[in-house]
Amino acid sequence: MKPLSEQDSRKLFFDRIFGSEDACPSLLIKPSCEILERCGGLPLAIITMASMLACQPIRLLEGQWEHMQNTLASKFATDSKYEDMMHILDLSYKNLPRHLKACFLYLGSYPEDHLISRLELVRQWVAEGFVSTSGGQDVWDVAESYFNELVNRSMIQPQYTDFVTGVSFCKVHDMLLELIVRRCKEDNFLSLVNDSQAVVVEAQDKVIRRLTVVGLQGIDDGEGAITIAGNLSQICSLMILQGSNWVPPLAEFKFVRVLFLCVSYRHEMALDLTVINHLSHLKYLKVEGDDKSIVLPGQIRVGPLLDTLDLSRVTSSSISLEIVDVPRLSHLAVPKHSRLPDRICEVKSLRTLRGFSLPNDSLESIVGLSELTTLSELFLYCPAPLLPVPAAAWMGALSTSLEKLGSLKDLCLGPFQSLKPIALCADALSLLSPAFHNLEKLHLHSGCTFSRVPRWIGHLHSLRELWIGVKQLLREDVVLIGTRLPSLAQLGLRVAGVPLGRIVIGGSTGFPALKSLCCR
Q1: Is 116 left (phi over 0), alpha (psi -120 to 50) or beta?
Q2: Best CA proximity match to 331, nearest among 122, 158, 149
Q3: 286 exposed, middle or buried (CB, 10 Å; 0-12, 13-18, 19+)?
Q4: pTM of the full predicted structure?
Q5: In whole angstroms, what is the distance from residue 87 CA to residue 94 CA?
Q6: Torsional sign, CA 110, 116, 119, 122
Q7: DSSP, residue by residue, 292-319
Q8: What are the start-end ranges of the H helices in 304-437?
Q9: Cα(316)–Cα(333) distance, rounded to whole angstroms?
């Protein structure tokens, strides 16, 4: 790819910092041109430098730019574009605030071109202790701000895949990843193995703190072998990615805080994960696999330090959790239709609850949901109630609990089983007086069909995504959605009956932000 022209280089540089070249103070024009000359028309160099300078306070701009100009002038003693590029990227790394450097290096845990989940990453940062708070700040909000700052500095590449959350995933540019790998090796920050014949040769007395194993296959057939000559006893993070079937003995990792296992089918025997009940320092646990590849404990004991437990991608017929004294548990996700624990009301620190099926023979745990007032994400499956619990009482209890959850931003109920008792009682939710006025995403799946669009929908002014089913859709319902929900970007409508007249989406009915419409 040819370097950018001088005109395009200037446009990219000044637009990123000031919005346009005309807005650049005159005293910064000269140092800007010299910085651009050093960038040599390389887009990554230009956008990285511009993003770094854009993050500086206005009062420091002149001195900061002179410092960058002088630093680049002293470093560029080679004719190699590659080395020039690496100098610029290294300068960007050195200029990161201290709290972001560890978060940035942690991206080296993922292989080249890997699509990294934003939620997964920030939860790992919190578990590693990289996120510090003060003055009553929320640790999860601070972690999100770290992610956003790295995006603003162009140190990671955002992947926009969601109308609501915006950046759901990110990637790392190949050259930035090369910088990360260099730094990780120099600082002994982490080790990555992606070759079945690999031998990680370290001094016997050198402590390996973080280990990532990527996509190793055939190890149990004797086709490859891995030797890690180093001290593993102090490992605090272990990640097995891309369906590897080689896992080091977990019992040795007594101090592991982050454990992420994506395990593929093993020909000889399934991986025994019953040891996870004895890893008392765990703060983050995520497991992906099926009954043929892994064996979980008969009852998973949630440790007192655990922040995140994610089993949502485990294919298992039954998951049993022991939840006793878990003051830190914030994110809990399980396989679809796992039974909601009776004592879930005691986990008052929960912010995410996904995958559970509401019990159809008792109201106790449904009522208990009302005590989880810090919940921001709730995804439940709703089966048809069984006697002796009447359908109306079951839906009433659910409605009462939802009214207490004022922190919700993401609510998904369903799919409901399409049986008449539950369908007839869906209108019980029409009487909600919701406290979750900051809700951004609402999914009400099949089986939960209202007679008409509930009036309380119009009070959710922050809603960006709505999926709802109704028996009859009237023009006034469309007007309510289109004019009262100014941020709505995605709308899914299930309409059971034929509209009585013409329905118009847009124009006089509003919908100023709508990007996606699905009707069926």
Answers
A1: beta
A2: 122
A3: buried
A4: 0.86
A5: 10
A6: positive
A7: TTEE--SSEE--TT--EEEEEEEE-S--
A8: 364-368, 391-402, 420-424
A9: 13
What are 412's strand-pairing partners? 379, 443
- In the structure encoding, which two tokens stand for residue 352, read together? 């995410």
Q: 127 is written with which tokens? A: 């578990």
Q: Which residues contact 405 (CB under 8 A, 6 or more apart)?
A: 369, 370, 372, 373, 375, 378, 435, 436
Local confidence pLDDT in tens for the 520 residues of the chain: 788 899 999 999 999 888 888 888 888 888 888 888 878 888 888 888 888 888 776 545 566 666 666 666 555 545 567 777 888 888 889 989 999 999 999 999 998 889 999 999 999 999 999 999 988 899 999 999 999 999 988 899 998 776 665 788 999 998 899 999 999 989 989 988 876 545 454 545 567 889 988 876 655 444 445 566 566 778 999 998 876 777 888 888 889 999 999 877 665 677 788 899 999 999 999 998 887 778 888 888 888 999 999 999 988 767 888 887 889 999 999 988 888 887 889 999 999 999 998 877 778 888 999 999 999 999 998 765 554 566 677 778 888 999 999 999 999 987 655 444 445 456 778 888 888 889 999 998 876 788 889 999 999 999 999 999 998 888 899 999 999 999 999 999 988 888 777 888 877 778 999 989 998 8
Tokens of 433: 């007086």
Handedness of CA 192, 197, 202, 205 (dihedral sign): positive
